[in-house]
Amino acid sequence: MNHETDSQQSDSQQTDSQQTGSQQTDFQQTSSGQADSRRTRDDDRSLVVVIGAGAIGTSIACRLIREHERVLLVDPLAPGNGTSFGNAGHISTESIFPLASPATIRDVPKLMFGKNAPLHLRREYFWQIAPWLLRFAWASRPSRFRAGVKAMQSLLARARDAMEELCADERLAELLHTRGHMVLAESKRSWRELENRRRLLERHGIESIWLDAVDTMAHAPFLREDFTGALFFPNSGHIGDPHGLCARLHERFADAGGESLRSRIHSIEPLDAGGFVLTGSSGKVAARKLVLAAGAWSAPLARQLGLVMPLETERGYHLTATGVGSISGVPVESQDRKTIMTPMDMGLRITGFVEFGGLDLPGNPQRWAELRRHFGELAPAVQAESFREWMGFRPSLPDHLPVIGEAPANPDAICAFGHQHLGLTLSAVTAEIVADLAAGRKTPIDLTPFRPDRF
Ligand SMILES: Cc1cc2nc3c(=O)[nH]c(=O)nc-3n(C[C@H](O)[C@H](O)[C@H](O)COP(=O)(O)OP(=O)(O)OC[C@H]3O[C@@H](n4cnc5c(N)ncnc54)[C@H](O)[C@@H]3O)c2cc1C
User: Fold this and answer.
1) Do the first three CATH levels of 2-83+243-310+400-450 and 109-140+178-235+311-396 match, i.e. the same topology?
2) pTM
3) Ligand 1, residues 84, 342, 414: which to mutate, most atoms within 8 A of Cβ?
């Protein structure tokens, strides 16, 4: 078996200064790499710039190009090569309980030190993450948690329909599967936890059904055969290729006349007359409006809009078994292992872990070894030609709610980042909201809990 490590996003991997898309932006660069600012300001008065081409940014760009004359998507990487590359693909509409919760605080010892512990803190990152962890603990108090549930429900109630609408063309529809997902319990304790979760979710109107052993296997034939049952969520779904989703959204955006630029933006300068000049590795761009959707890398740019964001990353890992032939079924979450196994177009993927280690430390090989063990124990009959290893950076705020809204100091700048474990799930609904904001329409969802200046 081969191992190909595919850990994402280091500066050395980035291909700056290339342009993609159906059209080239027409801002002019002088030989020194500086744009001719008079020309950019004259010509780009109508330009809406989206910074970041992950699931959030590509979905937003696709929505915006329907109603704006010119939209430019900027990223140093090709679309979908950030965290959106390797997620579990789960459209997790039932995840209404923010992780910032009394239950998480209570379970920290088990989450960090138990068998199959999913939570890891890199020792060398302790002092950097400590303030964020304190804020997370404070945001986990019961009153904030209850408010967080209400806020997440308001977004997630629309998430699946929004995704179906976003994927409503042939190219994209084949990636979206709306057959639900299921959760396995392998110990008495986790059966009890699962039953509690079922009851709590039922109170919030989320439907789930107990499956017997036969139905469990029918929904996920790749599993080992002795599972006695599972909890099934019929209204969730999955994307068969999360990276492919971004790539195809980008194709659609380009077909509709959207423009793309490979550039890492490092400065945002608001202009007195309105609009912005953005400076990046490919020079300057003038914009009438901008959308900041740079995932876990958004904080330094938000600061230039007057927003100090306690944005951290919860690193997560995947292992994708390729060469496994055709594998069908729904995503399988394990209550004991805190992993998700998803049948995907390119193979069978298992994801897991929350690791606090910032954006620069390399991945920990032990995490991939643990995923290999889980994989072998859950699906022992699946023979893989190779396993692809990957690590990504979930963008997370301490209250575990995303940031969606206009920057108070400059309503022409719209923030859309911090979608933590749910960026794929919430990408289409976030795009709808941003399109409303950019057009000056009232949003159907109350954005108060997600406002950028809440910290
Ligand atoms: C292991 C794992 C499993 C997951 N499973 C799921 C799941 O099943 N379901 C779900 O809903 N979510 C899941 N998630 C979370 C989800 O993947 C993220 O929330 C989502 O990918 C975030 O999308 P994004 O577009 O905000 O960020 P990204 O995909 O990271 O995109 C940000 C982009 O911004 C670009 N960028 C950065 N800095 C700059 C700059 N200065 N200028 C221009 N561009 C810049 C980056 O290159 C990148 O392409 C998972 C995450 C992990 C790690």
Assistant:
1) no
2) 0.92
3) 84
201 lines ligand 1 (CB under 6 A): no
CA distance 153 to 95: 8
CATH number for the domain running over 109-140+178-235+311-396: 3.30.9.10
Q: What is the pLDDT of residue 5?
A: 39
Burial 269-280 (b: 16+ CB within 10 A, else e): ebeeeebbbbbb
Say if ligand 1 is within 6 A of residue 396 CB.
Answer: no
Domain ranges of the chain: 2-83+243-310+400-450, 109-140+178-235+311-396
| Any atom of ligand 1 within 6 Å of the Cβ of 72 | no
The mean pLDDT value for 220-245 works out to 96
| pLDDT tens by residue, 97-113 | 999 999 999 999 989 99
**DSSP string across 311-331:** -EEEEEEEEEEES--------
Domain with residues 2-83+243-310+400-450, CATH architecture: 3-Layer(bba) Sandwich (3.50)
